[in-house]
Every structure is written in structure tokens, then in C-alpha cells.
Amino acid sequence: METNNVTAILRVSCPDRKGLISRVTDFIQRNEGNIVALDQYTDRLEKHFFMRVEWELEGFAISREEIAPAFEYAIANPCEMQWKLDFSDERLKMCIMVSKLSHCIYDLLARWRSGELDVEIPIIIGNHEEMRVVADQFGIPFHLLKITKENKAEMEAEQMRLLEENKIDFIVLARYMQILSEDFIKAYPERIINIHHSTLPAFVGAKPYHQAYERGVKLIGATGHYVTADLDAGPIIEQDVIRVTHIDTPATMVEKGKDVEKIVLSRAVEAHIARRTLVYKNKTIIFK
Amino acid sequence: METNNVTAILRVSCPDRKGLISRVTDFIQRNEGNIVALDQYTDRLEKHFFMRVEWELEGFAISREEIAPAFEYAIANPCEMQWKLDFSDERLKMCIMVSKLSHCIYDLLARWRSGELDVEIPIIIGNHEEMRVVADQFGIPFHLLKITKENKAEMEAEQMRLLEENKIDFIVLARYMQILSEDFIKAYPERIINIHHSTLPAFVGAKPYHQAYERGVKLIGATGHYVTADLDAGPIIEQDVIRVTHIDTPATMVEKGKDVEKIVLSRAVEAHIARRTLVYKNKTIIFK
Amino acid sequence: METNNVTAILRVSCPDRKGLISRVTDFIQRNEGNIVALDQYTDRLEKHFFMRVEWELEGFAISREEIAPAFEYAIANPCEMQWKLDFSDERLKMCIMVSKLSHCIYDLLARWRSGELDVEIPIIIGNHEEMRVVADQFGIPFHLLKITKENKAEMEAEQMRLLEENKIDFIVLARYMQILSEDFIKAYPERIINIHHSTLPAFVGAKPYHQAYERGVKLIGATGHYVTADLDAGPIIEQDVIRVTHIDTPATMVEKGKDVEKIVLSRAVEAHIARRTLVYKNKTIIFK
Amino acid sequence: METNNVTAILRVSCPDRKGLISRVTDFIQRNEGNIVALDQYTDRLEKHFFMRVEWELEGFAISREEIAPAFEYAIANPCEMQWKLDFSDERLKMCIMVSKLSHCIYDLLARWRSGELDVEIPIIIGNHEEMRVVADQFGIPFHLLKITKENKAEMEAEQMRLLEENKIDFIVLARYMQILSEDFIKAYPERIINIHHSTLPAFVGAKPYHQAYERGVKLIGATGHYVTADLDAGPIIEQDVIRVTHIDTPATMVEKGKDVEKIVLSRAVEAHIARRTLVYKNKTIIFK
């Protein structure tokens, strides 16, 4: 999509039936909307329909506030749709959580600073001191919450307070080496993006590069996924790989892997920000 | 698309205007058609609209023969559309033209034999004797037409006679090392697919691997494209690359390149057969 | 390596110590050998040394038969080396084992016919009738040994009889959908190459594309590996991936995966034939 | 290579002859050197030999200062070698030159800060004001030298003064949108690394993404290369690509291309810093 006008972005899913595309596009056309992007997909095995459509608000016959109720009444309810409506001028508020490694957070902040990532970043939360200097470089408040076995519940409570206080829309775990509690995860469903340093489901859990080294693989990779209560088992947004050889050690894999981790994470975040993702049964549909 | 039923496949392009998707899908829906695939795209720089939609014929209210006139009258003419209508049970007739190298023709024929490529292959035309044995292995008539400077016009006339006699729909140049005449090319517009052994526009013309070696590149590749009167300048369908290093010579590049050539050519042919391509201003839109 | 002369190919491994490269290359140089390729590698974690060196036989001061004893006495024994000596004019005898799918066997046979794979293929063994037609196309004897739960031991005995009778050097499982017995595997250590249709260790066992679909991955791949008694856990020779999207079903993954399977398997076989592989502690060193 | 000890790194090239590897490794071994990496290559078409060998200084029988004269006398002169000797504890001094775009400079500085790039960066030179803020973030002096048609010679003189004053070893053009003069280039032979936003030799010169869009390519890429007096024609160090589709515009290609540009440039810089590059006849040998 390329337009400088504000757009409405509608994502829907529902049981498949005839005429769904026609009904939705007709709703937009009759109200003088100019569609700038449309992507749809029918899961034939699940008999389920998915669609993302984006149209310019300028000239649209229904006011911004009235679109949701109008759509709900005319189409969503009769078709038993799950749906989300967003507007392209609503900038999401993103919180980065981080431990000691800088490659992912630097890549995110450099993209944010240059305008590649169209978000607000009100806060960065670290469980180690190391990344404060990076937050400082970009003028973003850094909150250090050191987590130990003893204080974990307390620290999470403080994290959640900060997230609420700053009206955070979604969280990016930029190599945050802590497992979040189920309660935390449930509070941000499909709104926590993690980067795992393997092509899941290979090498779940700790030290995936060491596992990869032990297995003697010829490719290593990274996976950007939404976090669910199941460790490293949430819906995958993006994956990529790079070659390694017998010469590589766990240490060189860690270094090489950084490039693919940061690129994969940033692509996953971009897809989320552009409202191009939709989760269904632990899979992520990525609209174009 | 995955359906066992016969489908209608409609590809359209026209100047962009509001409501095009709605009009086309409404035409299908009102006539009880079940859409199994839809992809559309608007070129915002050219203000031009492109769409491919596929629906099941079973249960469609308009008979197969009446769809084209009905669509033309109701939508295509008022919207100034260029359009093509095909049916999934119409198997295209493909002619392979070849010189001495076997990797591309073997890959095509192996896919054809296993059912991956849903086409008929009535004839293979060679300008050398070498590939007769391959044609024989797969029981396809092989026509040897040795081209020299002196007999080129005569041989092309014979080629075109064979193509017409066998009602060939499209031609695949599977490393056919001859330049076709403008008249030949004009007779098969957007119906001749060539594989060039470089990532065009790099290394146009003869011996691209030798050119690549001379330039010291770190990637070599291949390009599947429709043939136009401009040598190696037709609309690109598919491209891919593989890594080379300083160790590679022109000879090892020739060997390594074979893998990427055959895969790229077969992907291009598959896109053409599935009616997923549409050429506009020397570019190829590849519908999903 | 590019030379038209016959070469000696020496692969060695031993505990690391100073001067190993110098000792081996000095042995060759003092005897007037012209080195055409050398690759070495030290595993610093295991403190183990690996090397492959290839030199022209023409002009070498030691006769072909005397090289092994001379090298053993002068260098291999004092340095506690494991080693193999081969000559480039010794064509390996390869047996292809296959079930019903044709893409891998076609790719291997097309390469063999064109001279890309410099091997002999005395026999093809199938446990189904389907691939007999492919063997026939290329004029290679096809042996049908239908395996059932009841006759498995008997059939394997017959397979091994055929392998011995035909002096088979190594076996390629080109989508052979049977698990070999431990005895069979032990008879051909590091001499059975399998293609598994996932990037191991992800999706071990049956129906990896269905597992990949269930998990919602964005990449599928293939792994060429030496077979060991541990199912899908042998030393990896080569891996590669291709992208899939939410649109893909198990059926389309099966189709797309064929390209990467056949390329990965052929690359693994090429590395084995060129004596560029060396297995150490369940990993495969791939010399360049 | 992985060792914590200081190493000597020797790169040599010379006309090919028998016994070169043996002579060099023997020199190291006789002096009690422990080789930690060795890579060699013979260009059979040019009959030229290339080698990189790295060994630990600790325990080496020749003092650091005496290695060069000893090697020159014993081996380099008799073998007519071109050669360079470096030590791993000599940190190179790198100058970044930049215009308005931040993705490449951010990637370089983030790697430098995290220790991935083991260099000193005494200065950054910009021909626009925009990147001062990035230099400031990382505490590196930023020199603004605005170049116009009129003042180009003067500004280059000032650039070269700064480079000399800061004892710069090599220069990275991180999307520096100015053409350097021949005199400047000659002063830093094989010591200026540029990133060009296409897979050279495709799309030389200005606006390669616009050229790529016009041609309708399916892959875009980037090339890291040493700068020579021939524009975009210097020895290639690294290249990579990413996929685009018919949907992409010049503007989206510019965005997508940033990822591949920064990764390719950083890999090229890493190879240079690790002394793994060697230029011969306008090609770059990349030792492993």
C-alpha cells in the first residue's frame, strides 16, 4: 500500500461462505471508499475465510466513528465475523524488553529513528543494566527491573504497571532472556513478539546455537513469533536462515546468528505495526 | 488454489477506478459462483488495476460458453478492461525447443511425467541431434531442424509449421541457443518462455558465466522471461541466484548454474500454466 | 579442483599437534607431487585436526600402489591418523533405493546421464513397482523387493545380496520410505545417504510436511545425511530451505518441497562422490 | 579462527609452482608456530597461487619484528611473492563517510559498540548535516564537509588532511552519495569500501532501484566492493539479494533494500578487518 492519506484497515475472519469478498467490497464501494489494498485467503481444510482490506478515509461516506457499528450491523454480525478495525494514523505504543545483548535493540531503534518503524517507544525495560546506555543514546526512558527467583512476581507486577501507565499496545522481547508468567502473557494476547534464535520448532529452549552445534546442522536461523503460555510454541510470524559450516563453533554461530535475528525480528515487528498479521489456531496469517 | 472441480480463471486489467473488485466479485456471486482464489493489485504510479479471480464452474448459473459474452457486456466493456478467460480443464500444449544441454529439458519432462506440470507436450524441436535420446526416453516426437546462417528462414518456417500443425499454445526455450526472428516472436506474443543464465539485466547475450567470472561476482543466477524482439529484455517471470566464490571458474559456474536455471525455468513455466502471469508494459505480474 | 589428470585424494584426521600441514605437504612435495586442492580445519574444542589434500599422480615419485604404505609409515602412524586414500579415476558404484516418488531419482539419473555425477549405477532397488519405468528409461536394472512386516528380514537379505553382487560402494535413499535394519546400516557405515524432507532436527519421522503445516512454519526444507541406527539423527551433509506462507497446505508443501529435496540430495551425493566428506562424532566435515 | 592469543596473519600471492604450501608451513613449523587457520587457492587459469595463514605469536621462535625480514629472505623473494604481514592486535583505524541515510552507519556503529567490529573509528565525515546526530550518539567526532561543484577539490583536500591526521587505515562509504576523485582513490588503494545498492554489474550509477523497477526484476540486491577509479567497477567483496514482486515500487524497494545493503556492507567490512581479503586483477579473494 502506498498512499499519503489516512486509511481504514479492516481484518476479518469467519466461517467460509459464498459472497464474502463481494459483501465487504460492496460495503466499501457503496460508501465511496477507495480500496488501496486487499488480500484474502480461504483455509480450505478449516473452511475458514480471512481478509484484510484497506481504504482511504478521505471521501468515505461514513464518519470514522460510525464505521465500526455500521460494519458490525451490516456484515460482521450476519456473517459471524471476528474482526478488527484500525486507522493508519493511530501510532502504536511499543515497549522493548531487553537483557544484555544489543544487536536487536539497536536495529529496532535505528529503524525507529529513521522513520522505518512508525511507532512510539515510551519505555524500554531491562533486567540488566547493560542496555541503559543504548536507551540513553536514543533518549528513551530505561527501567531496570532485575529479576531473581525470589522477586519475580513482584518485578512482573512492576513491569505491568509500567506498561499500563504508558498505555503500551505491544511488547517486543529483543533477546529478553526471561520467561514471562502466564498471567503476563494473557494480559497481552497476540501483542508480545519474541525473537527465538533458531528456526522453530528446532532447538526450543535454552542455548539453541549450542544445540545446533551439537547436532551438526548446516543452517542456523531465527524465528519471530507471538508469545503464548507454551514456551517457544506461539504462532510464527517470520523465519529466516543463514549457512554455517563445520568450521563454526557455538561462539561463531552466536555472532553470525545476530544478523538473521535482528532482521527477522524487525520484519515481524513491521508486519505487526502495519496490521498485516492475523492469528488463527496458533498460526499467523501474513497479509501482503 | 486447491479444488478438484473445474474452475474459470479470469485475468483482467484496466484503468483504475473505484469499485472494480466489488463489480467483478458481485458478478460471480450473483451467479452463484464459489470463488476459490482472488488476487488483485493496483499500480498506483500507472493508475492501472489488475486482478485474477478463479471460481468453480459447478453450480455457476451461467454456462461455460456464455460466461465470456456475459462478462464482456456487463463489466469488461463499461470498465475498458483487457481480459482473458480460461478454464482449468483446458490443458495447454507446450513445445520444448532445445540445443545440446539436458538439465532443463530433463527437469521439465520429469515434472511432466510425474504430473507436476499439467500440460501436453506434443513435440520437441532440437537444432542439434543430442537431445533426441531424451525425447525418446519420454516417448515424445523429436524434430531435428539444424539451423545454419543460410537456412535460418527456411528452418523457422518449418518450425512454425510444426507448431501450428500441433496446435502449440506456448513454447519453452530450454537452453535453446538460437535467436528467434522477430516474425517468429510476434506470432507467439507472451507465449515464448526463455531461460537466461544470469540475473538479467546483468550479463545480457552470449556466455554470461564467462562475463560473471570476468567481473568477479559473488552470486550467479538465472532469469525466466517472456521473449520479445529485444534480446534478453523481455518481461521477467522469475529469478534466483546461488553463491559462487573466487574458487569458481567459468566451468564450475556453468555446472553450479544448472541447478538454478532448471528450477527458475520450471517455476516460470508453472506460473504460465496456472495462468498466474499477466504482462503489462514489459513487466510480469505474478498472481499468487 | 580442475585438472584432467588423475589425482590422489587423501583425507586424514588426528589429534591436533604442531606441524601437521607441513608434514603432509612436505611428503607430497618431496615426491614431486603437484597439489591441486588442499583444505584443512582444526576443531579447537575437540583439539582434532582434519585435512583433505589432492595432488596429481602424473610425475609423482611414488607409484600408485606404494603411496598408502609409504604414507602410513612416514606420517599416519607417527601422527595417529585416521585416513583414507582414493584416486579420482576410481568410479564409485552407487545403488539408488526408491519407493513411489520420482523427483529425486529423476534428478539423480538426469545428472548421471549428462555426466554431472561421475558414478556407475549398476542397479536400482524399489519396494514398489512405480519406479521401474524410470529405471527402464535409463536402461538400469530394476529390482523389485516388496517389503512387508512379515518378509522384512528376508527382503533385506536379498537387498544385501544384490549390493554385494554388484559391488556397490554406497547407497542413495531417494525418498525410500522404509526404515533400514541396524544390521544393514552397519554394513554400510557412512555409505548410505538419505534425504529427509525437513531441516533436521525439526520434524523427525513420518510426514514432516504435515508436521510443518501444523506448526505454522514460514520455511520448509530438506536434509541430506548419512544414515545411522538412530532414525533421522545421522551426520548432516547438506540442508536448504524454501519459503512457504499461510496459504500453503500439506499438499502444496509436498509439491514445493520436491525442488529443495532433489537439489539437496544431489549436492550431498556430489560431495560424497568427490570425496569431500569426512564424518567425525556424528558431524560431517565438508571440504571445499 | 578462534584463539585468544595474538596471531600473525600472512597473505601471499605468487606465480604457481610446486611446494609453495609446504615451504610456507615449514617456515612456521620449524620456528615452533602453531597454525590456527590456513586457506589457499590456486587460480589454474592464471597459474597464480594465493594463501592466507595465521599462527599464534606466543612461542614463535622469531620475534614480531624479525618475522617480515626473515620471511622475505627465506621465502618471499625466492618465490617472487606479493605479501602482507599483519598482527591481530593491530586495530585498524576506520573512517566512515556518509550523506543523509542512516541505516548503514547505524549498523556499523552498533556492531562497533558491541565489539562485533574490532576497529577504531576516530572520525566520521559527512557531506550533509543529517548524520551528525548519529555520530554524536556514539561520541565520534563528526566533520561536515559540504561538497559543491565549485569546492570539490578543496573539500577533498580537507578530507585527505583529516584522514592523514587521524592515521586512517581504511574508509567505508556508508551510502556516501559523492564520487571520489581519482587522486583520492589512488591514495587509498584497496582501502575504500563502498556499498552499491544493486547486484553489480546490474544497474551501475545513479538510482539503481529506479532502474530495477523499470526493468521489472524479481530480485534486488547490494554489492560491497573496493573503490577504483572506474565507477562501480571495483573488486567485489560481497553481494546478496532479496525478493521483490510486481507490487513493489521504487519507494518500497528503497526500504526493503536497506536491510540487504547494511548486512552486505558490514560483512565486507568484517572481511577487510579480519584480513581475509586479497585483490588480484580486479577480483577479491575471500579467505575463510
Provide an overview of this structure:
With 288 residues, chain A is an alpha/beta fold. Chain A has 2 domains: 3-87, 2-Layer Sandwich (Alpha-Beta Plaits); 94-286, Formyl transferase, N-terminal domain (Rossmann fold, 3-Layer(aba) Sandwich), CATH 3.40.50.170. Helices cover 33% and strands 30% of the residues of chain A. The first copy, chain A, is built from 8 helices and 13 strands. The first copy, chain A, has helices spanning 20-30, 64-76, 103-114, 132-137, 152-165, 182-187, 208-215, 250-273, and strands at 7-15, 34-43, 48-56, 82-87, 92-98, 119-126, 142-144, 170-173, 192-196, 219-226, 236-243, 277-280, 283-286. In chain A, the strands form 3 sheets. In chain A, strands 7-6-5-8-9-10-11 form a 7-stranded mixed beta sheet, sandwiched between helices. In chain A, strands 2-3-1-4 form a 4-stranded antiparallel beta sheet, with helices on one face. The first copy, chain A, starts with 6 loop residues before the first strand and ends with a strand. The model of chain A has no long low-confidence stretch (mean pLDDT 96). Chains in contact: A-B, A-C, A-D, B-C, B-D, C-D.
